[in-house]
Amino acid sequence: MLKVEPPSGIFVRSAFSGTINTIISELMERTAMTEIIPPEVSDFYKVLPKIELHRHLEGSLRVPTMMEIVRAHEMDVKNTGYLRPLVQVDHDEPYTFENFLSKFGTLRLFYKSPDIIKRVSWEAVEDAALDNVRYMELRFTPAALSRAQGFPMAQVVDWVIESVHQAADHFQVMVRLIISINRHESLDIAGEGLEIAMARKKDGIVGVDLAGNEAEFSAEPFRDLFEEARQGGLRVTIHAGEWSGAENVRQAIEDLGADRIGHGIRVLEDPRVVALARERGTVFEVCVTSNLHSGVVDKVSDHPIVKMIESGLNVTINTDDPSISRINLSSEYQTVHKDLGISMDMIGTRVKAAAQGAFLPAELRSKLANAIEKEFMRRLILPD
Ligand SMILES: [Zn+2]
User: Fold this and answer.
1) How far is the CA of 287 from the centre of ligand 1 (A)?
2) SS3 of 207, please?
3) How far is the CA of 16 from the centre of ligand 1 (A)?
4) Which of 10, 33, 108, 7 is nearest to 66 (CA)?
5) Who's near 142: CB < 8 A, 6+ residues apart?
6) 291 Cα–ligand 1 center, Å
7) What residues does the ion ligand 1 have nearby, CB within 5 Å?
């Protein structure tokens, strides 16, 4: 029986006592109260066609699925607190990057079999389709998925690819994959991830991503690796300017050849880097609620997305980790519209920009951008 230990630094509210069955039923009861999709999202946003460029598979697990896994594998959650606070950010928790990253420590324990990995991959695509996402780039960290049972990384990647393709066909949504490499892990692991990605370009792996603990680990050691990725025909996106400053955005663009920046909101701290990103047309994968939950901004109204758009930056709107943040892309469009005052026309422009920033061949990209623009405009003029 596997013990679910809260990762260090985790905020645990209260402990369970009793048998596994009473724990499970209590978990089920509590989970039922919180859906991933916030109930207050209006249909107006739900029906809009969407593009997702920045979503982590590991941050997309449905809580009810996790509950089933806990039950099926008799995972012992006794004395470790409720499951949900271990895997989702709650309102009364500290909004810090340590707390945010700690959720992945628990999530990692769930990849206990090929079936589970295939199931969560399928469900991530299904959830996107249900949210009217037309095109999604789903990223995942093979090292993280393989660790629970010591599966070979290449094997894990093939399970994800297989399931994502089946789900994409079934739900009629276009999906491409990005391999994430953690900057707080070794270059050996990174190298293996890159090799696996290179060998699977024909299977829909379109890029590599540098993720993980930006606050404490530099991207510098990964420079050659990303050069190799680019030479090999993969596209590059780098988490930067999220938990550290504008210099990291500059480094990602100039030294690592990033086509896109994950978050990048702290670019505004240096006008020279803003100018550089604007000139290059670098795409920013902005994730508003995630930035709140990981303590990058204190409140939504402080979020600089409007300022980024006004500065001429190529901004797109994304979720990052829908399950951890209990959001979807509809609720994010609603947040930037209602709470940050971004007009629906501008949201439409940003959705089109996301299509144009997709890691697809040029022809396919412009076809997608035109189709999404047309559908978005049609939805906007429909009566309520
Ligand atoms: Zn991310």
Assistant:
1) 8
2) strand
3) 32
4) 108
5) 153, 154, 156, 157, 179, 192, 193, 196
6) 10
7) 262, 320
* Per-residue pLDDT, 18: 38
Place of tokens 């207050």: 40
In this predicted model, what pLDDT tens digit does every residue of 51-89 receive, in sequence order?
Answer: 999 999 999 998 888 888 887 877 765 433 467 777 777
Angstrom distance (rounded) from CA 208 to CA 78: 38
Q: First and final CA of the chain: distance in angstroms?
A: 52
pLDDT at residue 290 above 90?
A: yes
How much is the mean pLDDT over the chain? 87
CATH number for the domain formed by residue range(s) 41-62+89-381: 3.20.20.140
Residue 34, SS3? coil
φ, ψ for residue 311 (rounded to 5)? -80, 5
Alpha helix ranges (H) inside 172-219: 187-198
Q: Please, are residues 75 and 108 in contact by the beta-carbon 8 Å criterion? A: no
Q: Look at the pTM and tell me if it is higher than 0.90.
A: no
Task: Tell me the angle at which helices 20-32 and 63-72 cross, rounded to the nearest 10 degrees.
Answer: 170
Of the pLDDT bands very low, low, confident and very high (cuts 50, 70, 90), residue 39 is low
Q: Is 21 in a helix, a strand, or coil?
A: helix
Alpha-carbon distance of 25 to 154, in angstroms, equals 37
Distance of CA 364 from the midpoint of ligand 1 (Å): 25
Mean pLDDT of the region 104-114: 81
Query: From the CA of 13, how far away is ligand 1's center (Å)?
Result: 26
Residue 26, pLDDT above cutoff 90: no
Structure confidence by residue, pLDDT tens digits, 250-259: 999 999 999 9
Q: Catalytic amino acids?
A: 242
**Ligand 1 center to 263 CA (angstroms):** 7
Helices (H) and strands (E) in the chain, counts: 18, 8
What is the 8-class DSSP label of residue 2? -
Distance from Cα 292 to the centre of ligand 1, integer Å: 13
Q: What are 222-236's pLDDT values in tens digits?
A: 999 999 999 999 999
